[in-house]
Amino acid sequence: MNETDIRKYAGMLQEFGLTGIEITEGNKSVRLERAVSGVAARETVILDNTASPVVSTAEEDTDYISVKSPVVGVFYAAPAENADPYVVVGDHVKKGQTLCIVEAMKLMNEITAEEDGVISEICVANDQVVEFGTELFRMKK
Fold it and tell me: Cβ(134)–Cβ(67) under 8 Å?
């Protein structure tokens, strides 16, 4: 997969109003995501070299807390490579509890819960590069 192909797929995100797309060619996989405010449903297209595009739509739950990245950096779910993650789906968290680390320019930024809640979804993968405003977690109130 080359840069031209990736740019083509990024254009598809905008053209079709999608929030994410995952492309698999052989043993290589690329996932592109973009943040869209005010969207009522999330859509993701999954493409691979053997199937046609599939669009899945999931209604978003409005009774959740969205934890977003305050910086551009690398998402780390655990304090060290072989350590347990700070949180997993289903964990009850308290205000001020560390949820993850986002490394930006060699600085480790601890991301903490702003409210009490239950982790209902982890939206990014460990070692994934995240943009400012990327949704990291969803928590039930």
Answer: no
Chain-centroid distance, C-alpha 33: 8
Whole-angstrom Cα distance, residue 45 to residue 24? Answer: 11
Those residues with Cβ within 8 angstroms of residue 91's Cβ, 6 or more apart along the chain or in another chain: 118, 119
- Residue 106: helix, strand or coil by DSSP? coil
Q: Can you read off the two tokens belonging to residue 38?
A: 């005010």
**Of 26, 32, 33, 19, nearest in space to 48 by CA:** 26
What tens digit of pLDDT does each residue of 104-131 get? 888 999 999 999 999 999 999 999 999 9
Taking residue 120's Cβ as centre, other Cβ atoms within 10 Å add up to 16
Instruction: Render pLDDT for 75-111 as a digit per residue (tens, 0 to 9).
Output: 999 999 899 999 999 999 999 999 999 998 889 999 9
Split at pLDDT 50, 70, 90, the class of 35 is low
- 112 neighbors 96 (Cβ within 8 angstroms): yes
Contact 86, 108 (CB under 8 A): no
Classify residue 107 as exposed, middle or buried by CB count within 10 Å of its CB (0-12, 13-18, 19+): exposed
